[in-house]
């Protein structure tokens, strides 16, 4: 009985070795191990996060420059409104107030972007782009009132 138990144990170990050995040999031949795959995955994830952070920072700088440009456009319209006829001034001042409101909304979105996680910044980015487009449309309408 002991001999049969010993024999069964040897057979089970032999079968397990026969099943595992090809995997070990393949791993050795290909030079790829689970650890190397894990390491490469971590490196790829880190690189992706860094790239996303760089994109976010570049976009923030671009939007800040756009906000500065918007303020200059608003200031230009204010100067034009001062020289406009009295009846046009009221319309222009109303349009300028609307532009300032839209610019401020875009500034708020930029602040949201600065505090957004890398995962959520895409959603905030699209909202910010929409706010910028709204400003541009309003600015063009205001300019058309000058002419």
Structure summary:
The chain is mostly helical and 147 residues long. It has a domain at 50-146. The chain has helices at 2-30, 34-83, 86-115, 121-146.
- How would you classify the helix and strand content by structural class? mainly alpha
Q: Main β-sheet: number of strands, strand sense, barrel status? A: none
Report, as a whole number of angstroms, the end-to-end distance: 108 Å
The number of strands is 0
Query: How many helices does DSSP assign?
Result: 4
Q: What is the rounded Rg?
A: 33 Å
Helix/strand order: HHHH
Helix content bin: over 70%
Unreliable spans: none
Tell me what you see in this structure:
- The chain is mainly α.
- It has a domain at 50-146.
- It is 92% helix and 0% strand.
- The chain has 4 helices and no strands.
- It has helices spanning 2-30, 34-83, 86-115, 121-146.
- It is rod-shaped.
- It starts with a helix and ends with a helix.
